[in-house]
Amino acid sequence: MSGVGSPLSPQRRRFLQDSARAAGGCVAAGSMLAWLARDARALPAEALRPPGALPEQNFLSACIRCGLCVRDCPYDTLKLAELGVDAVATGTPYFTARDVPCEMCDDIPCVAACPTGALDPSLDNIDDADMGVAVLVDQENCLNFLGLRCDVCYRVCPVIDEAITLETAHNTRSGHHALFLPTVHGDRCTGCGMCEKSCVLPEAAIKVLPTRLARGSSADHYRKGWEEKAAKGAPVVEGIIDLPDRLPGPGTDNLVTPGGFAPEYNLPGAGQ
Amino acid sequence: MSTRTHMPVGQEAIEVKGWIGAHKYLLLRRASQLFFLVLFLLGPWFGIWIVQGTLAGSLTLGVLPLTDPLVLLQSVVAGHWPELTALIGGLIVLVVYALIGGRVYCSWVCPINPVTDAAHWLHRKLDLPKGWQPKRGTRLWILATVLIVSGLTGVIAWELINPITMLHRGLIFGAGFVWAMIVAIFFFDLFVSRHGWCGHLCPVGAFYGLIGSKAMLRVSAHNRAVCDDCMDCFAVCPENHVISPALRGKTGTTPLILSPDCTNCGRCIDVCAVDVFKFTHRFDDQVAAPFDPVPAPERRAARPT
After folding, report:
1. Contacts of A57 (CB under 8 A, 6+ apart)
2. Which residue of B has its CA nearest to A35?
3. Which of A67, A163, B7, B68 sits in a 20 to 30 Å window from A229, CA-based?
4. Is some CB atom of chain A closer than 8 A to the CB atom of B54?
């Protein structure tokens, strides 16, 4: 016992060595595990999380990979990622829109099935889901952009006329037809993927991307003048200076030449 | 190694109790493991939905939620407070295993157990050296590491590599490359480290051991007076350090195996030809009086005192 406690005791030395060895091993193993954990966060762009899924970082702290959401999905949309097969964090639920899109059930059974809240139970209206945002990624091959009337993505959209609208534009190629351009409205699009699934092209021209990839964001301090003005019902700035219009001819409010700005030359095609 | 025993392990027990009798708990355990697995597989394979989900989280008959408390703990450490369903499920599992012995999960439910048992069986048949034997506390260190990494990364860390839930999920939902992991564990236990995975490394076992440290169901060496030192129980026990204190305890010490490392697998009961061991509760510390009127000779001391 004489050696115990003194700095040179073999027990103490052994304890310190063992502890150091265990701690060192744990730091090494823990680093590997942390690297795997970081790696797991890299969700492939084509893998979409179920409706109500928390943001990916929070999702991986909440999803226990039980598969109950998959079981309660009536359309076999959701899958659990398999080890080494899908590049999604193993065992977590996801779907690929081009294979089986989300059918946007009214009762959202996957969210109801989730025991942990990884699928946020506060999502009570499927139209508010944010699984991603559809983006018309290939205007060069989209039939509507070529001037044809495919319209399939628009027709199948569960939130038709809100999430996807057809915006008309002049068809400069033919010169006398309209283009009906499928236009996604990101704040209404749920990312269900019906459009991507239904795109008639061999490779879809419209694809659902994770919101982080699909959308930009407006700076906080930006104000849209026309919206501010409509909200106020009057010009935002009182007594705004009316700048000269510099239009030729009478009817202008050009202050320098109140009677109108008469050019010294005749503009081609103007008047006469 | 051949001097360890004079006969193959379990030979005497088979002669005395018959093959079935000498493998009673082993057979029950395999049945139990199969039962829990089939329970989960009935749905996906035959459309009989008694249990949905996996060992990480399940729903039985649409009403009973069960959640793995270690997964839940990592989730909390990673910064997510789970919904009530998962918490109730975790609590039920916690209470049950606290009562019947945490590591009952390891030997009666866990799907990795047949894999490591098979490795150990072959290990014994081939009479291989026991190899790398990390300290008993290693799995606790790993458990702590897993929780720390979960906290630092905000990801339920162990589920990234947990072979238990991976194998289970793989069987139910599609395996991917899980089989490679299972093969790796088998060979690790066979060639690198005897009882290496379940006995030294697995943090799930460490966690369940902690849960069940005061469990009611225990094995007692109540009949230790008749022990004939054949060493078969030590040979088959996956955590054989737990036996000595109970079996070799001095008169007056408890015959109960109180170590939380004991998995309550019951193999020691099976292989003992003279029925030293039995299942009992943790307050039953009676030692049976030797039935032989002639007292057994004093046992040799393990090492000179």
Report:
1. A41, B154
2. B153
3. A163
4. yes
Q: Do B57 and A30 touch (CB under 8 A)?
A: no
Buried b (16+ CB within 10 A) or exposed e, B75-110: bbbbebebbebbbbbbeebbebbbebbbbbbbbbbb
- Structure tokens of B304? 């000179």
Taking the Cβ of residue A18 and every Cβ of chain B, the question of whether any pair is shorter than 8 Å is answered with yes
Contacts of B82 in chain A (CB under 8 A): 62, 115-117
What would the two tokens of residue B166 be?
A: 């991976």
**Chain A contact for B34 (CB, 8 A cutoff):** no
Integer-rounded Cα Rg, in Å, for chain A is 31
What proportion of chain B, given as a percentage, has pLDDT over 70? 92
ipTM: 0.86
B contacts of A89 (beta carbons < 8 Å): 155, 160
pLDDT tens-digit readout, B259-276: 999 999 999 999 999 999
Residue A5 DSSP one-character state: T
pTM over 0.90: no
Place of tokens 């909200």: A231
Chain A residue numbers with beta carbons less than 8 Å from the beta carbon of B174 are 79-80, 82, 85
Sign, CA dihedral A67-A71-A72-A78, equals: positive
Instruction: Judge: A66–B57 Cβ closer than 8 Å, yes or no.
Output: yes
Closest CA to A119 of B83, B166, B60: B83
